[in-house]
């Protein structure tokens, strides 16, 4: 069974639901989400290959696509016959900025929502693969699970060939890097340059040394907003050097 293809097929079915299509039509946030889902998938393959091995783990590839899966179920579409879980208690995507920035919501509730919905959409996956993917999704905002300076999790259950915590760090890094390759262009629109620079510095500070080099090396294009041209490259260079 090709579990990656099946997972991706079901993901596309989720974003192809009429209620989501109605929500996404003309919605710039939904467009950015769609770009982000795929960009993180691209980045995990690249980062894993740079750090460890050309063959990216199956669980990591799947987790990259599903890591923000609760965004596919915005407020108003929470009651969905295709979703049986009762664990998705808070719609994190639709909370006000002040609510979503709460550390517990962002790093615990949101990832657990996404993992729960992933399991509901893929109930026939091997339990070992479900657990591996769920762990990665639940750690996508914070990376590896470490206690006393050591990894809590060892090798994955499904294949026994890769370290789950290394994969969690790669997924977290990819999610952070995607801000610079995708999300930054929507973020700069309508926000004061000072606030944009603060966000860039914050996002940059969360990256590893390798991730920071990759962010510096990206080519940034300008964007137009209400007749004004915003030089995104200049904002990044000014913020991080």
What is the chain-wise order of helices and strands?
Answer: HHHHHHHEEHHHEEH
Number of strands: 4
Oligomer: single chain
Strand content: under 5%
Strand order of the largest sheet: 1-2
Helix content: 55-70%
The largest pleated sheet is described as: 2 strands, antiparallel
Compute the CA-based radius of gyration: 18 Å
Structural class: mainly alpha
Total domains: 2
Tertiary shape: globular
Alpha-carbon distance between the termini?
47 Å
What is the residue-mean pLDDT, rounded to a whole number? 86
Protein model, in words:
This protein has 241 residues and is mainly alpha-helical. The protein folds into 2 domains: 3-187; 190-241, no CATH class. 59% of the residues lie in helices and 4% in strands. It has 11 helices and 4 strands; from the N terminus they run H-H-H-H-H-H-H-E-E-H-H-H-E-E-H. The strands form 2 sheets. Strands 1-2 form a two-stranded antiparallel sheet. A two-stranded antiparallel sheet has the order 3-4. The longest helix has 24 residues, at 28-51. It starts with a helix and ends with a helix.
Task: Throw out a few tags for this protein.
241 residues; mainly alpha; 4% strand; globular
Compact overview of the structure:
With 241 residues, this protein is mainly alpha-helical. Helix content is 59%, strand content 4%. It has a two-stranded antiparallel ribbon.
Secondary structure blueprint with pairings:
Elements: H1 3-15, H2 18-24, H3 28-51, H4 58-66, H5 97-100, H6 103-121, H7 127-138, E1 146-147, E2 150-151, H8 164-187, H9 193-205, H10 209-217, E3 223-225, E4 228-230, H11 232-240
Antiparallel strand pairs: 1-2, 3-4
Helix pairs in contact: 1-4, 3-4, 3-8, 4-7, 6-7, 7-8, 8-9, 8-10, 9-11
């Amino acid at each position: 069974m090709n579990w990656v293809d099946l997972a991706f097929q079901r993901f596309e079915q989720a974003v192809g639901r009429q209620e989501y299509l109605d929500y996404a039509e003309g919605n710039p946030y939904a467009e950015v989400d769609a770009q982000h889902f795929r960009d993180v998938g691209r980045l995990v393959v690249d980062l894993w290959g740079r750090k460890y091995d050309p063959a990216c783990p199956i669980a990591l590839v799947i987790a990259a696509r599903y890591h923000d899966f609760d965004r596919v179920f915005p407020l108003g579409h929470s009651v969905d016959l295709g979703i049986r879980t009762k664990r998705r208690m808070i719609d994190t995507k639709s909370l006000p900025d002040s609510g979503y920035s709460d550390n517990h919501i962002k790093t615990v509730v949101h990832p657990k929502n996404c993992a729960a919905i992933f399991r509901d959409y893929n109930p026939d996956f091997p339990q070992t693969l479900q657990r591996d993917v769920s762990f990665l999704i639940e750690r996508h905002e914070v990376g590896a699970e470490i206690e006393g300076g050591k990894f809590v999790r060892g090798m994955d259950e499904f294949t026994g060939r890769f370290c789950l915590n290394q994969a969690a760090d790669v997924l977290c890094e990819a999610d952070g890097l995607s801000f610079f390759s995708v999300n930054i262009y929507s973020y700069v629109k309508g926000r004061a340059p000072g606030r944009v620079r603060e966000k860039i510095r914050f996002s940059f500070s969360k990256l590893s040394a390798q991730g920071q080099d990759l962010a510096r090396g990206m080519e940034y294009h300008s964007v137009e907003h209400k007749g004004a041209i915003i030089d995104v490259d200049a904002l990044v260079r000014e913020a991080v050097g």
